[in-house]
Design goal:
Elements (H helix, E strand, L loop, with lengths): L8 H36 L1 E3 L6 E3 L10 H16 L9 E4 L3 H11 L4 E4 L12 E6 L10 H11 E11 L4 H9 L4 E13 L2 E11 L17 H9 L11 H11 L3 H4 L7 E7 L8 H5 L11 E5 L6 H5 L4 E4 L2 E3 L3 E7 L5 H6 L3 E6 L9 E9 H8 L4 E7 L5 H11 L7 E4 L22 H13 L3 E4 L2
Parallel strand pairs: 3-4, 3-5, 5-6, 9-10, 9-16, 10-11, 12-15, 16-17, 17-18
Antiparallel strand pairs: 1-2, 6-8, 7-8, 13-14, 13-15
Helix pairs in contact: 2-3
Length: 471
């Protein structure tokens, strides 16, 4: 006989529900007891300093050993900041970077009683104007994937007239000035190298900034670019321009590519707010983005945003499957208007695959000057787009191959100041060769000679753009 026969049919279901409820109540009480027991345990392994809101964790047998050398190092750093008047024993302090155990011990040894720490180096979970002093170790701002956002957070949470102390492993002037550009409302108080006898690090740069009430005025983006000495030195150290017209440009181009000194190979670019690569005249993905920029250009593991500027519709479908590449299906030009491109109809496999048939651009109003077949496309004001899309604190790289239109585009970029936003450029300058090579019959297609290209390259370098010759 089944167990159900012991209960009347009308009572079986309610009694069963009663048993289930008892089990549920027991489970709930067991969960509450476990939660309270855990809280009691945690409270016994954490002590609170008398006048601070920060938890100073005590070590148990499962925690790593305290790095006494690191504690001693940062205790000395904090004591020096106190001695120099940047920090007091009662300053409300935020520390960013190294583990809580070492920071806590160093703060305690220095006598600082009101401090918070965080390992976060993007968004900070604190209110505006919370701290008197903020300290970022070499694993703070240096290691942030978004230094621009993190700099804004440090500025937001620091009180006016508060001090920001930054330790950085970066030493070249390009990166140090990039770091200072992140803090508009700060005044540089001190910059010096200090010893850090720990791990593989021997020295770091200590920068002390003071928050001001007004924004520091940025360099104006006008016709004349600001070219500081450190930038001139980088350009001077790059590969020299080829002074004489090469007889075999393709050979000189390959040799020049091997000798090319990229900006990220000479300077640290970690303190930029954004990283941008613009391929003007991109053609197919494998033409330069996939074959050169992705594989060769030293990006220092930065997440570059890629823009492919290409008016030729034959290549548009190819970019639909390419993630993280934005296609601008227009022709780079000096204003927003319809353009006619001269098309080279010579039956050639190279033309069909590489897209070399797209020739010179001309406004629709003056297209009668062309002798060949024409293809109508939409042009856009490239200089205006650059100025509206990017900032001085961004790192912007441009590759340009526009079959003679580069003279018009560069003139507009210089006129508007958009050229000042470009950090590095790879420019193919088109010219009518003075010397004919290898009995090849070449049409006089361009109005400019090699001398004009050389002057264009030189003028761009004088304006602070590290421009490279490209063939």
């Amino acid at each position: 006989m089944s167990n159900q026969s012991f209960f009347p049919p009308n009572l079986y279901i309610p009694v069963t529900n009663l048993f289930r409820r008892r089990h549920l109540v027991r489970a709930i009480f067991a969960g509450i007891f476990f939660f309270l027991a855990r809280q009691v345990y945690l409270s016994t392994t954490t002590t609170i300093t008398a006048t601070t809101t920060t938890a100073i964790e005590t070590r148990n047998s499962f925690e790593p050993e305290l790095d006494t050398q690191l504690v001693k190092c940062y205790s000395t750093v904090f004591q020096n900041l106190i001695h120099d008047g940047f920090l007091t024993l009662h300053s409300k302090t935020l520390t960013v970077g190294i583990p809580i155990l070492e920071f806590s011990a160093a703060l305690r040894e220095s006598g600082i009683t009101d401090a918070k720490y965080t390992k976060k180096n993007v968004w900070l979970p604190f209110r505006n104007h919370t701290f008197d002093v903020e300290f970022s170790s070499h694993t703070g701002l240096d290691c942030s994937q978004f230094p621009g956002q993190f700099a804004s957070e440090l500025s937001r949470t620091l009180k006016p007239d508060g001090y920001l102390v930054i330790h950085t492993e970066s030493k070249d002037l390009y990166s140090l000035n990039s770091l200072l550009d992140l803090f508009d409302s700060f005044k540089l108080i001190r910059s010096r190298e200090i010893s850090v006898p720990h791990w593989s690090i021997q020295h770091v740069r200590e920068i002390v900034l003071k928050k001001q009430g007004i924004l520091r005025r940025r360099r104006s983006v006008a016709r004349e670019c600001s070219v500081p000495a450190y930038k001139k030195k980088l350009i001077h150290n790059s590969e020299p321009l080829i002074p004489e017209e090469p007889m075999k440009p393709w050979v000189s181009g390959k040799r020049n590519l091997k000798n090319m000194k990229y900006l990220p190979s000479m300077a640290d670019i970690r303190f930029k707010t954004g990283y941008v690569y613009i391929d003007v005249g991109a053609r197919g993905y494998g033409s330069s983005i996939g074959s050169w920029f992705k594989k060769v250009y030293p990006k220092q593991d930065k997440p570059f945003k890629i823009f492919a500027v290409e008016a030729d519709k034959r290549f548009h479908d190819e970019y639909k499957s390419k993630k993280r590449i934005t296609l601008l299906p227009y022709a780079a030009w000096v204003r927003n208007e319809s353009l006619f491109f001269e098309i080279n109809r010579t039956p050639n496999h190279y033309n069909e695959e590489k897209g070399k048939g797209m020739g010179r651009a001309q406004s629709a109003q003056t297209s009668t000057n062309f002798m060949g077949d024409l293809n109508k496309v939409q042009g856009f004001d490239f200089a205006d787009w650059v100025k509206k899309s990017f900032r001085e604190t961004d790192f912007v790289v441009v590759k340009m191959d526009v079959d003679g239109t580069e003279f018009d585009l560069m003139a507009k970029m210089v006129e508007t100041g958009a050229i000042c936003l470009i950090d590095e450029m790879f420019l193919e300058c088109h010219y009518d060769p003075k010397e004919k090579c290898c009995d090849i019959e070449m049409d006089s297609k361009y109005d400019n000679g090699y001398k004009d290209c050389l002057e264009l390259y030189s003028s761009l370098r004088e304006k602070g753009v590290l421009v490279h010759q490209r063939w």
